[in-house]
Amino acid sequence: MITIPGIEVSTHIYESANTLVYRGIRTQDKKPVILKVLNKKYPTPEELARYKQEFEIISSLNIFGVINAYTLVKYQRTLVIILEDFGGESLRSFIQTRKLTLAEFILIGIQSVDSLARIHSANIIHKDINPSNIVYNSENGELKLIDFGISTVFYQKSFITKNVDTLEGTPAYTSPELTGRMNRSFDYRADFYSLGVTFYELLTSQLPFETTDLMELVHCHIAKQPVPPHEVNPEIPLVISNLVMKLLAKNADDRYQSAWGIKADLEESLFQLVTNGKISNLPIACQDVSQKFQIIQKLYHREREIETLLTAFGRVSDRNHDTPPRSEMMLISGYSGVGKSALVQEFYKLLTQQQGYFISGKFDEFSRNIPYSGLIQAFQQLIKQLLTESESQINLWRKKLLEAFGSNGQMLIDVIPEVELIVGKQSSLPVLSSTEFQNRFHLIFKHFIQVFTQPEHPLVIFIDDLQWVDNASMQLIQLLMTAENSQYLFLIGAYRDNEVDGKHLLKLTLDKIQKSGTIVNYLHLEPLDLQNVNQLIVDTFNCSFDKGKCLAELLVRKTNGNPFFVNQFLQSLYQERLVDFDLSPVTYERRWRWNLEQIQARDFTDNVVELMVSKIQKLSSDTQEVLKLAACIGHQFDIQTIANISEKLPEEILKSLCEPIEEGFILLLKDAYKSIDPDSLQETDSVKGEYKFAHDRIQQAAYFLIPQEHRSAVHQKVGQLLLKNTPQDKRERKNFDIVNQLNLSIELINHQSYRDELASLNLMAAKRAKGSVAYEPALRYLQIAMDLLAENSWDKQYDLTLALYVEATDAAYLNTNFEEMERLAEVVLCNAKTLLDTIKIYEVKIQAYMAQNQPLQALEIVLPVVKSLGVNFPDKLSQSNIWIGLLKTKISLVGHRIEDLIDLPTMTNSYKMAAIDLLSQVRVAAYLTSPPLYSLIVFEEINLLIKYGNTFDSAFVYAAYGMILCGVVGDIDSGYRFGQLAMKTLDKFNMTRKKNRAMHVINSFIKNWKEHGNRTLEPLIEAYKRGKENGDFEFCGYSAFMYSFNAYCVGENLRKLEQQICSYSQTMNQLKQQTIFNYLQILHRTISQLMDESEDKCSCQFLGEFYNEEKMLPLHLEANDKTAICNIYFHKMILCYLFHNYHEAVKNAEIAQKYLGSATASLLVPLFYLYDSLARLAVFKDVAESKQKFLLKQVTNNQKKMKKWADHAPMNYLHKFYLVEAERDRVLGKNREAREYYDRAIALAHEHEYINEEALAYELAAKFYIDRNQDHLARHYLQDAHYAYQLWGATAKVKDLEAEYPQFLSQAHKTDLKTTLSTSTTGQNISYVLDLLSVLKGTQTISGEIILHNLLAKLMKIVIENAGAQKGFLILHSQTKSLNEEDNWVIEATGSADSDEVTILQSIPINSVNTHNLHPFLSTAIINYVARTRENVVLNDALHEGQFTRDRYILTAQSKSILCTPLLYKAKLSGILYLENNLTTGAFTPERVEVLRILSAQAAISIENSRLYEQLEDHSRTLEQKVKQRTQQLQQKNQELANLLQKLKATQSQIIAQEKLASLGALTAGIAHEIKNPLNFVNNFAELSVELTQELLEEISSQKDRLDPESRENIEEILNDLKQNAKKINEHGTRADNIVRGMLMHSRGQTGDRQLTDINALLAEAISLTYHGMRAKNPSFNMNIETEYDDKLGKLNVVPQSMSRAFINIIHNACYAACKKKKRLYVDVEHEAEGFSPILFVRTKDLGEEVEIHIRDNGEGIPQKALDKIFNPFFTTKPPGEGTGLGLSITHDIIVQQHQGNIRVETEMGSYTKFIITLPKVVP
Questions:
Q1: 3-class SS shares of the chain: helix, strand, coil, % to 5
Q2: DSSP class of residue 226?
Q3: Pick from 202, 997, 1024, 1608: CA 20 to 30 A from residue 917's CA?
C-alpha cells in the first residue's frame, strides 16, 4: 500500500505494467476516492507528462459522463491522480459476472454514446474506448468514461490530427487508422470503431477478432470483416447488429459521422423494445449528418496504380520459386500535390498481411548538401520499429546486425546513430585509405540491408521528393539495387517530373540501374478529373451529384484537379464561411450549403502557393515568424531548435504553433504535451516535440513569406543562433544544419575572421560527408571553404588552407575528377612549407594512377620523393643491384634473431614513417611492372625497420622479405621464419587493417616451401574474406586468385574449383577489380579446356568463352602486366604437354620463363620447372644430338632446383623430382631406374594427395611400358591414370586417354567408373541413400503381404508417401469383362495424404463421377493413354501444359501435378497407379518417378501373387464344400495348393533376396573398385620382384668370379627366399584378384547373347574343365563320374558362357565336398576300412516344356541351418581362404534371373547333396 497525505488507502484493486489502482477515503470530507498511480520507480519525462496531460484533460472537461479528477499529487519519484469513486465497476468486470439483457445493453450504449459526444464536443479524442475504461454503477445506472492517458486534443477548424506510424490504444479495440499502418489521419470517429468493438463484445461475449497474434489482429482490423453479431447470437435484433457493423466500418467515412446519430438509433430501438417488446428492422443512420467539416480521406481514381504496386511487391516477396526474386524499384512521378505520397500510404495499408517492414524518408530542398538525409530518415524509422519489439527479438536483431557488421559497426553508427541503441557501443575504426573506407562503407551498408530483406520479412523503402536527392544517396541506391544478391527489397521513389529532365542525376542513375538488369517500374499520376472531384464533394457534403457538380466544375477550373489544391481550396471556403452547415429549426433539414456566386465573387487565386501564402498571412505575426524559421530549417523541425533560433522559450513556441496545427498546416510527429511541462521546465531540459509541414507547398509558402532580399539575413541569423546554442560536443552532428544555413548567407559575411570560421565549419562538414562516402557534397563544401579564404591565406592561415586543399585533392580523386585533382595537388606542392606536408598529396596521386591502371607513373612520382626522405634507389636496375641490396639487408640483420624483431621499438621518425608509407603504396605497382624494384623496396623497408623500429606495416614487410628469401634468394628456412614472424607481429599489435595482406603473402609465397600446398587454402579464403570486410578489394582479389591457383596446383577437384572461380570472378567484376578478373579468367579457361571434351586441344589457343588471348594479350603487354603474360604462357605450356603437343609446350615454356619473375615464390614456379623438364624430355628423341645435350643440361638445372625444394617440402616436390628423373632415365635407356622412379613418383603423389600429378605419373609409366611392349603392365597403369584423371575432374584428359588407348580401356570399366563418380557428392549420396532406403522399405513391405486387401492398403500408403502425392488411385483390370474398354478398368484402391484410411476393393469404373459434386474421380483420358502406350505420364502443370489441358476432368478440378504409371509384370500390364497433387505444380520429380517405377514393378508382382493366392483361397473354400462328394479330388487339390503355396513363399523369399542382392551388388561394386587398384599394384610389384630377383641371380651367376663363394651363397639364398616370398605374394594376390573379379562380375550382372546350345555337351565340357582343374591343383585328386544324358533334349536358347559358369560352380562344389569327406575318413582310422570313393552323378531329363538337370555328389551334405543362406553373396561353409562365397550366388543369378529357371537343393548330412536345375525351353 502507498501512503498519501489526507488519504486513507484501503484496497489495491488493479495492477498493470504502467498503472496501480487503489481505493481509499479522503479524510477531510470522507469522500471515497480512486488513486491511479504511475507504476514506475524511475518514470521518464514523457511518462510524467502523459499523467499530467491525463489529469489536465479530465479536469478541463468537467462534464457529466466523465470521471472527475480531484487533484494530482507527487509520490516519491512518480505521480498519483486522485479521482472520484462513484461506486461503479468497469464493464469488463461487470460482464464477467452476468450477461446483459438487450434493454440493459441499449441503456448502457446510450449513456456511453452520450458521454462520448460530450468529450468530442470538448475537442477531445479518447483513443482507448474499451470495457475496462467504461465504469458503470449498476445500482443507480450511472456510467462514466475513464483513462484519458493517450487522449488527443483536436481543433475546431480541422477536426483531424496527424497520421500515426505506431499502434495506439488497446490492440483488440483500436481502430484501423490508429494501427499505424494506414494512409489516414485519425479523428473523433476512431472512438466510434472502438465503441463498436465494445458493443460487439457486450452483445456476443466475444471479440470481433479472436487472435493473440498482433500482426494478424492489425490485419483483421484493416482488411477483414467480422461475423455480424446477429449471426453469432440469433437473439440480437438485426437493427442492433447493423448498428454495430456500421461502427466497425474500416473506413471512417463509412461509420457514423456523429455520436448524435448513434444515440438517435439506440433511443429509437429502446422505444420500440419498450413499446412493442421487439425492435423492427428500421433503417439506421437516418439522422446521422455530421456538422463538422471533414474532407473525406479517400483516394480517388487510383485503383490501377494500387494494383500495379501490389503486383510488383508480390513479385519481390514471392517465396514460391526455387530462384529467389530480384529486388525492384517503382518510380512514381507527378506534379506536387497530385497524391504520390498518399498513394504509397494507401499501398502500405494493404501490406498488413505481409510480415515485412515499411519505412519512409524524404529529401528536402534546403538540405540537398546533407548526404543520405532521406535514407537516414527511413532507417531511423526502421530502428524505431525494431525497438518496439520484445527483448528476445531485439537480441536476435542484435546478433544478426553484429554478424553483418563484423568490426565495422561504428561506420554505420556514424551515419545512423540510432543503430547503436540495438547493437550497443562499437569499437572505433582504424585509419583507412579513402578507397578502403568507401569499399567498407558500401559493403557494410549492403550487409545492413540484407539483414532486413529476407523471405520472411521483405523490406519496402519509400523515398519521397527524389528531385532533391544528393549524389551520394543515388550512388547508395544504385549499389543496393544492383547488388548481385539484392532480394526482397522493394524501393519506391516519388519525384516531381516537371523538375526532373533527362540530365538530372535521378534520371542518369535510373538508366544505369536499369541497364544492370534490375527491374525499374514507372507510374505517372494525373490530376483528378471532374467526375472524381464531384465524387469527393458528394462524399464530403453528403449531397447529390447534381448539387455538387457546379462546385466541382469551379474547383477543377481553379485547381486543375490537383488533390492537395482541391483540399486546401475547400478548407478556404469553409474558413471563409462560404460553405456552412444548415441547422434550420424551421425545416428540421440538416445539410451543407454554399453559394456559387459568392464563391466566384471572392476571386480565389488559382495558384496553390499563393493560396497557402494568403492562408498563412491570416495567422498571428508571432506564428508567421515561427513558420518562416521552420521553413528555413526544412520540412521537419523540433520545438527546441525553433526556440534556440528565435531566442524564445519553448512554451512560447508551442503556443505559437497551436494556430497552424489547428489549421492543419503543421502535423505533430510527437505529442508536444508529452514532453513539455512549463511548470517544471528547467534550463537544461531538452524539449523533443517534433513537427513537420503537412505538405511541401505549405513549407514553400511559409518560406515565400520571407522577402527575397531578407532571406540571406534570415539564414545567417538561423545559422549563427544554431551555432551559438549547439554545445561543442554536439556540434559535429548538427554541423550540416549550421553550415547549410550560413552558406546561404555568404554574401553578408565580410569580416575575414568570420569567413575563416565558416571555412573551418565547411571543412568539418566535408570531412563528415567524406566519412559517409558522400564525395560530391564533400568536394562542394571544400570548394565553398576555399572560396572563403583570403588571397594570402597560405601565409596567414597556413594550417587551415593546407587542410582544405589536401582534403579537396583527395575529394576530387574520389569523385574521379582527376584533372581537378592534379590542379589542386599542384597548388599544395607549390605552397607547402615542408616535405611532410606534401606526403598526403603524393599518396592521393599514387592511388589515382593505380585507379587509372598506370603503375609506372605511380613509381615515377614516388622514387624522387622517397629519395628526399633519405631512401635511395639506383637509376638503372641490374641483378648486381639486387644482390648488393640483399647484402646490405643481411648486414643490417646481423646481431638480430629473426624471432626477436617483434620486440623492436615503435618507429617515431616522421620522415622514415612517411617513406615507409609511400613505399607501401607502390609495392603492388613494382611487383606488377618491375619485380627487381619490388625486391629493392622490401630490402629498404627491412633496413628502415631494423634502424628505426616497427610500424603498422611491419607484418607485411616481414612477409614480403620472407617471400623474397624463399623465391629469389633460396634461403627457405629463413624465409619461413620471417613468415612466422609476420604472423606473430599481426597478433601482437592487433593489426586488423593489414592482416589480410600479410596473410596473403605468407600463404601465397612462403608456406608452400615448408608445408603442404593444401594448407594454404583455408588461410587464403580467410584473407579473401577479411580483405572484403576491410574494403581492401585489391588484396581481397589477389587472395581469391591465389586460392584458386593453389587449389588447381594441388589437385583439387576441377568441377568444384570451377564453381568457386565463377563465384570469385563475379565478385571481382562487381568490385571493379579488372586485373584480378583477368587472372581468374585465364585460369578458368585452362580448367575449362581440361574439363570440356569438345574443346580443340591441339591448338592450345585461349580463344573460348571465358578468355580471348588475341584480344587480351595486347592489353597486358601495353600495361606491362607481366603476371598475366606469365600465366597465359604457363597454362598453355601445361595444356600443350598434357595433350601431346610437346614442341608447342616447349615454345610456351621459353616465353613463360621470361616473365617467371612476376610469379616469384608461388607454386607456379616449381610447377613450371616440372612441365618445362617434362616437355623438353618429350621432344628429346626428335631433336639433333647437339640439342639433346642442351636439353639434358636444362633439365639437370631444373632438377637441382626441384631437389632443393624437395629437401624442404618433400610432400610438395619430391614426387615431381622423381617423375622427371624417371622420364630422364627413360630417354637415356635406363629402364630399371626409370621403373623405380615412376613407382616412387606415383606412391608419393598418392600419399600426399596430388591426384593430378599421380594421374600424370601413371600415364607416363604406362607409356614407358607400352614402348617396351609390356602391355599387361601398361594396362594397369593406364587404367589407374584414367581413374585418377577422372577423380581430378579432367574429363577432356579422360577422353583423350580413351581415344589413344582404346585397347586398354574397356567400355565396361569406363561405365563403372563413371557410375561410381557420378554419385560422389554428399547431397547426391544422401538423396541416393534415402531413395534406396525408401525402395527397400517399400519393396519389403509390399512383398511381405499376400492378402490382396491388406496389400492394396499398404501399397497406396507407400506410393503416396514416397511420391509426395495429395491423393492416389490404384486401377486394376475388372474381374468381369465388358465390351466397353473403359469399363475393363476399375478403381480398386483410393487414398489421400490427409487420411490414414484407404478405400479398397470397391471396383468403381474409372469413368464414374463423385456423387457429391458430380465431378469425375480422375482423368480417364490419361488412364486410357497409359493403358495403351504403357508409358509414364508426368504433368508438372496439367491445367496449362501438356496434351491433356482440354481434358474435362483437368478443367473441372483445376489440376496441377499428375503422375500416372503402368504396373508391368512379365511385360504385361497388370494395373495403373494414378497420383495427384493439386497444392503445387511440379510435385513429381524424376527421382520420385524412378522410385515409383521400382515400387510399381514390385507391386505388379505382389498383386499378381495376391490374386493367385485369392484364387487358391477360392479353390480351397470350394473344395471344403464338396469334401464329402469328392474326397479323392480334394486330396489332389490340396497337394496342388500346398505346392503352389510353397512356390509363392519361395517367390516371396526370392523377391526379398533379390532386393538384398541389389543392395549388396552396389556395395560389392564399390568395394571391388577400391580394392582393385591397390591389388593391381601388389600383383604388379610381386611379378616385377620375381623378375628382378631372377635377373639378379643371373647377374650374380655371370659375375660369380668376382664374389667369394660364401658371399655368393648367402646372396643367392636371400634372393631365393625373396623370390619365393614374391611368388607367394603373387599367388595370394592372384587369388584375391579372382575374388574381386567375382565380386565385380556379381555386381555387374551377366551379359552376353543367347544361342541355341547343346546342354548335354555344355555339361560334359564343364565336368571336364572342373575335373582337370582340380587335378592340376592336387594331383592326388580322383573322382568317379557317372552321367545320364537325355538324348531328346535338343538345343536350348541360353547364354553359353554364363550357363557354363553356373555348371562349373556347382560341379566344383560337388568335387570339393566329396574330396573333403574322403580326407576326413582317411584321417579317421575307424572309418578308413569303409573304402569310400567320391562320386559325381550328372543327369538331364526332358520334361516337355522344361529341361531338368541333376548334379549329385556323395559328400558331407549341407547343414539344414545353412540351406536358406547358400545363395546369399559371401556366404560359404568352406574354411577361411578356401572360398569367396560368391559362386552359388552368381549361379543363382544366372539360372533364375538371366534364364528364368529354377534351382533347388536336396541334401542329407553325411550322405549326399543334389542340385536340381529347371530351365524353360521357350524364353518367356
A1: 60, 10, 30
A2: P
A3: 1024
Cell of residue 672, nine digits: 508536444
CA trace torsion 700, 706, 710, 712 (10° rounding) = -30
**Shared-domain flag, residues 311 and 379:** yes
- Looking at the structure, do residues 140 and 181 belong to the same domain, yes or no? yes
Q: In what order do the strands lie in the sheet with 1680-1684?
A: 1680-1684, 1735-1742, 1746-1753, 1808-1816, 1798-1804
Average the pLDDT over each of 456-460, 786-790, 1750-1754 and give the range with the smallest value. Answer: 456-460
Beta strands 1735-1742 and 519-524 are unpaired
What burial class does residue 992 get, using C-beta atoms within 10 Å of its C-beta: 0-12 exposed, 13-18 middle, 19+ buried? middle
Confidence class for position 1517, pLDDT limits 50, 70, 90? low
Integer Cα distance of 1104 and 259 in angstroms: 80
Residue 1517: all three cell numbers together? 473354400
Whole-number Å distance between alpha carbons of 982 and 953: 10
Percent residues over pLDDT 70 in the chain: 84
Residues β-bridged to residue 124: 153
CA distances from 322 to 895, 1366, 1482 (A): 65, 21, 11
- What DSSP element (H or E) covers 360? strand 357-362
Do residues 221 and 209 make contact, with C-beta atoms less than 8 angstroms apart? yes
Nearest Cα neighbor of 85 from 11, 154, 181, 158 is 11
Q: What is the CATH number of the domain that holds 1409?
A: 3.30.450.40
d(CA 1374, CA 361): 71
What does the CA dihedral 409, 412, 414, 420 come to, rounded to 10 degrees? Answer: -60
What average pLDDT does this structure show over 802-818?
Answer: 90
What does the pLDDT read at residue 1643? 46
Last residue of a domain, one of 504, 524, 544: 524
CA–CA dist 22, 33 (Å, integer)? 9
CA–CA gap between residue 1635 and residue 1564 (Å, rounded):
11
Q: Let me know whether 457 and 537 are in one domain.
A: no
Question: Is residue 1736 within 8 Å of residue 1679, measured between CB atoms?
Answer: yes
The pLDDT of residue 143 is above 60: yes
Q: Where are the alpha helices (DSSP H) in 503-582?
A: 505-515, 530-541, 545-559, 563-575
Boundary residue ending a domain (1644, 1662, 1679): 1644
What's 923-953 look like in SS3? HHHHHHHCHHHHHHHHHHHHHHHHHHCECCC
Element (H, E) at 76: none
| Local structure of 1595: helix, strand or coil | helix
pLDDT number for residue 169: 82
- Please return the burial class of 341, using the count of CB atoms within 10 Å of its CB with bins 0-12, 13-18 and 19+: buried
Number of Cβ within 10 Å of residue 1188's Cβ equals: 16
CATH of the domain at 144: 1.10.510.10
CB 956 within 8 A of CB 993: no
Closest CA to 517 of 323, 332, 327, 331: 327
CA 1064, 1070, 1073, 1078 dihedral sign is positive
Q: Based on the domain organization, do 179 and 286 belong to the same domain? A: yes
Most distant CA pair in the chain, distance: 153
Q: Is 1103 helix (H, G, I), strand (E, B) or coil?
A: strand
Question: Cell 479528477 identifies what position?
Answer: 69
Could you tell me the CATH number of the domain that includes residue 359?
3.40.50.300
Collapsing DSSP to helix, strand or coil, 1270 comes out as coil
Q: Which three cell numbers stand for residue 1403?
A: 471396383
Residue 211 has what pLDDT?
A: 84
